[in-house]
Amino acid sequence: MRTIPQFLAISLTFLSLAQAEVREWTRSADNRKITAEYVGMKDENTVQLKMPNGTFDVPVASLSEADQEYIKSQQEEMAAEGEGTAEVSIPEGEVTVTLSGVHICCSDCEDKIEALNGAKSMRFYPETEFSADKKDKTVEIEAPSGKAAMYALEILFKAGFCGVSDHPVLTVPPLEERDFETGVASLRDLHLCCNTCVSDLEEAVMTVEGVEEMKGEVGDDSVMIKGSKFKPTDVVKAAREAGFGTSFR
């Protein structure tokens, strides 16, 4: 029997819960109030609210503290529902997760990771701490709960970093398998701070059968992959195994 992947199950459960939530929201700048349906999070900084004239993207930071607490509670409910759906056990207390094999080639890579400490993207779990070790190619995440650690792992992945977790449940987002071939694809959400980053990524993706060329430069957050027929999933897998957090589009 096929099962729904954990992160997909969480998203679907969250969406079904969120669509029933209609409440009053307050803009912190001028205390203006609106009544809107809570749709969900577009990304870590933006909430989607549905009103009679359409669905709008609203910066979380522009809302009142009470609204932000509400959003946090919805995310926690999403994680709890996902836990039950996927039949996994997420730790409730403090937890430390270590990722190995992360692509950390220079001090800029370390700085990028440690800049997540206190970042806006982690405002719901400010007690969470990231520490990077260039020598060992590891990232350690200390979180107040398993839910916070899971969220932190997603944020780290979106920042362009991937690795193998030492925890059986708390891992980076799973690879989305898509069985099709193409001659062109792009990898997104990359961290390419130096020539070593670019060359290491290129070396990894060029091992995939059918890939002939990678176009990308230092500072880019995406690269173009070209060749004869190849599977984008295989390209993403190769990049992830080299320590890069990325997906294709």
Written description of the protein model:
This protein has 249 residues and is an alpha+beta fold. The protein folds into three domains: 6-86, Roll (SH3 type barrels); 95-165, Alpha-Beta Plaits, CATH 3.30.70.100; 182-248, Alpha-Beta Plaits, CATH 3.30.70. 31% of the residues lie in helices and 28% in strands. The protein has helices at residues 6-18, 65-86, 107-114, 146-158, 195-205, 232-241, and strands spanning 22-26, 33-43, 46-51, 54-59, 95-100, 129-133, 138-143, 164-165, 182-188, 211-215, 223-230, 247-248. The strands form three sheets. It has a four-stranded antiparallel beta sheet with strand order 1-2-3-4, with helices on one face. A hairpin with a 6-residue loop joins strand 1 (22-26) and strand 2 (33-43). Helix 1 crosses helix 2. The model is unreliable at 1-20 (pLDDT under 50).
What is the structure about, briefly put?
The chain is of the alpha+beta class and 249 residues long.
What composes the largest sheet? 4 strands, antiparallel
CATH homolog superfamily of the largest domain: SLA1 homology domain 1
Q: Any idea of the CATH topology of the largest domain?
A: SH3 type barrels
Which secondary-structure class do the elements indicate?
Answer: alpha+beta
The structural domain count equals 3
Average pLDDT, all residues: 86
Radius of gyration: 19 Å
Task: Give the SSE order as H and E letters.
Answer: HEEEEHEHEEHEEHEEHE
